[in-house]
Write a structure and sequence with these properties.
Strand content: 5-15%
Structural class: alpha+beta
Shape: elongated
Radius of gyration: 37 Å
Oligomer: single chain
Number of strands: 9
Order of helices and strands: HHEEEEHEHEEHHHHHHHEEHHHHHHH
Number of helices: 18
Helix content: 40-55%
Distance between the termini: 70 Å
Length: 539
């Protein structure tokens, strides 16, 4: 008989276990904790936890533990369980009532057996074979179905050989043991169901995020890789900071919930790009809109060259009546010089249209001069400016391909991201996602956007994401307007950003010291981009 004190102690233990199970997020650890807890409160030497397969046709071994034999399989042990699933029905569809675990699952009924060797109703031949191989004596069994909130069996908890202290002799599981095990199985089933529901919701949520990123990717294949690489680099750097136990960021730590929150923020950091016009995102040249307007300018040059040739031909006819061969030769020389000058201007505009390098003041003026010096007759036959004001504005972009207005459109994506994310009813463990995702374009000196936050006003996670976003952009090789930088060149720019207050200097030091850039490069960069980097240059 169990004493009142022992029952009270075990009930208190059961309550503690139930509270602990409700907090466990990892399903593998949860299952293992359930079995260990059941063994503890019933004084069982061994135990097995089964789960019903998705098709509900069998029981799958999840965890096996026998203390006296030092057997630990499944769960966190690192040892896989190679046993076949335990079928719930035979080939003709009859219930597999011969196997005690299957019986408990099929009939939703606890089975308490005092001695397997004298039990006539179940097949313990496999147990006897195991005992013969190991010298073990499998005696008392307590097999409890695990039911969810709808009454469906989701698993079976089987306990072996009750050995209560102090003697440690094997005895049958008592009624109190059975009640405690059934209570624990009920709490465990609820914990498993809740964890599965949470996992399903998380999977659904992440699928919606993937859907948003797919929409961005479909709009522009140039940004799809960015939406995947920035979260990956963010987590690499965050884990490096988490593992770094010295320096200004030594106090920074992350648990599994923190990691998940940052992962979600990384995946959503550019969700506002769904609002950005694709012709701005994909603007590979200065004159590109839905198409590259340099072709229109090419056509105008061809019109001017044609007009030059026609004018020369008319003048030549007039000179022939005067039989002035020298004048004709001079005429065509001048015409060719004019045409060559047009071709030169044309090639110049084609070159500056690419926008890869910073334009000199003289080049800017030359664009304006070309637009002002030439005129042409448009498709309506009306004399018009050779370059429109909009074309001159675009062709005189000093660096890159975006006008100031277009850059504002691009920059607005982060405002849209923040607006979108702040509309969502985030649960407690994800409440920081808008701040993390919305801060990756801020600067440590307060000169970033959209809020002009300073380093002190930003979380470590947001600052981590800022570094990841910049480094990915520098090294990305799928952008329409540039090639991916060499690793050393990108690190040089990042170091300048560290020194001028653009990025967090302490985070960048860890980025360098832990060689996060190197691990990222090996996975995501073209091998031709990876060159020698001396970390001492950037510390």
């Amino acid at each position: 008989m169990d004493s009142i004190e022992d029952l009270l102690r075990r009930l208190e233990q059961l309550n503690t276990i139930g509270a602990a199970l409700s907090k466990e997020r990892d399903i593998t650890r949860l299952l293992e904790n359930i079995l260990v807890a059941a063994k503890t409160i019933t004084h069982a030497d061994g135990g097995t936890l089964y789960r019903v397969t998705d098709d509900r046709q069998a029981l799958r071994f999840e965890i096996i533990k026998t203390d006296s034999l030092k057997i630990a399989m499944g769960g966190t042990s690192g040892k896989s369980i190679d046993f076949p699933n335990l079928p719930l029905h035979d080939a003709e569809g009859r219930p597999n009532d011969a196997m005690v675990a299957a019986y408990a699952a099929i009939h939703n009924q606890t089975v308490n057996i005092a001695d397997a060797y004298t039990e006539p109703n179940f097949d313990f031949s496999g147990t006897r074979q195991f005992d013969a191989r190991t010298g073990y004596r499998s005696q008392s069994f307590l097999t409890v179905p695990m039911k969810d909130h709808e009454g469906d069996v989701i698993g079976v908890l089987q306990l072996l050989n009750c050995t209560p202290p102090p003697g440690g002799a094997v005895v049958a599981f008592s009624n109190a043991d059975q009640s405690l095990a059934e209570s624990l199985a009920s709490q465990a089933a609820i914990a498993i169901t809740n964890r599965n529901l949470m996992s399903q919701l998380e999977t659904l949520f992440e699928s919606f995020i993937s859907l948003i990123n797919l929409a961005i990717d479909e709009k522009s294949h140039y940004t799809g890789g960015h939406c995947q690489r920035v979260p990956a680099l963010t987590m690499m750097l965050a884990e490096a900071v988490n593992a770094h136990k010295s320096g200004p960021l030594a106090a920074f730590t992350m648990d599994d919930r923190d990691r998940y929150e940052l992962k979600i923020a990384g995946l959503l950091h550019d969700c506002g790009k769904v609002t950005t016009p694709v012709h701005v995102v994909d603007k590979a040249t200065k004159l590109q809109t839905l198409f590259d307007r340099i072709d229109l300018i090419d056509t105008r040059f061809e019109v001017l060259k044609r007009d030059q040739e026609i004018s020369a031909l008319y003048a030549q006819l007039a000179l022939r009546e005067q039989h002035d061969a020298a004048a004709e030769a001079q005429l065509w020389t001048q015409a060719r010089e004019a045409i060559d000058a047009l071709d030169d201007d044309r090639e110049f505009l084609r070159k500056v249209n690419h926008g890869a390098e910073s334009m000199q003041v003289a080049d800017l003026q030359r664009v304006r001069d070309i637009g002002r010096q030439h005129t042409w007759r448009n498709v309506a036959g009306v004399e018009a400016e050779f370059l429109s004001a909009n074309e001159i504005e675009n062709l005189t972009i000093r660096a890159g391909t975006l006008t100031a207005a277009e850059r504002e459109i691009i920059n607005y994506h982060i405002v849209a991201t923040i607006k979108m994310l702040e509309q969502l009813p985030w649960p407690k463990h994800l409440k920081n996602v808008p701040e993390y995702a919305g801060g990756h374009h801020e600067r440590m000196d307060g000169k970033g956007y959209p809020k002009g936050l300073t380093r002190e006003q930003m979380s470590v996670q947001a600052r981590v994401m800022g570094i990841a976003d910049i480094f990915e952009a520098l090294t990305a090789s799928d952008r329409p307007y540039k090639q991916g930088m060499k690793l050393s060149q990108a690190m040089g720019i990042m170091h300048k950003f560290k020194m001028n207050g653009h990025i967090d200097p302490d985070l960048f030091d860890i980025f360098v010291q832990e060689r996060v850039y190197e691990r990222y490069a090996k996975t995501y960069l073209d091998p031709l981009q990876i060159d020698a980097v001396d970390p001492q240059l950037w510390v």
